[in-house]
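Question: Now follow the chain.
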Amino acid sequence: MITVVDYGMGNLGSIKNMLKKIGHAVSVSGDSKDIKAATKIILPGVGSFDEGMARLKSSGLLDILNTKALKQKAPVLGICLGMQMLFEGSDEGTAPGLGWLNGRCVRFAPGNGLKVPHMGWNLLTPENGNPLLKGLTDSSRFYFVHSFHARCADPADVAGTAEYGIEFTAAVARGNIMGVQFHPEKSHRFGMAVLDNFARL
């Protein structure tokens, strides 16, 4: 069972509906028993970094998520803010992140006529042959809404990139820990492909 973590932030219903549409069993829950029983975990998120970490801590699920991800090695997919929280921190705030991936998140520098946040459709370039992006090409388009982007300490953790004034990390993966900066639940057939790849790992 894939469990989408409900800690009060994220497009929970949209993620659940897309996974069901492509034939995968999925639940949405903030109950510790359901998280413990999950075979795969999706950590969604929209909003600010510090608020996301504060809500995750107040949910009482932090220890369980650390156990599932770091000790039991259950596949985890962070989406948007959920991906950013996988890192050690963000320039958006002062709260420490989960620290499951080395690196931190930084703000886009406005300029060259580009507005911040980066919002809308953008092409993704898969990197390092990660199975999360299996079957995708440089013509795959995804929907983004974000002002901050991740900088991985290890380039091997970069699973996909996109460009917005600069090349930035759009997907990450290290073992069972994965994340996408875009919203697969809003990205039609390309988003379905990413969620299906995750479900089949």
User: Anything to note?
Assistant: The chain has six helices and 13 strands.
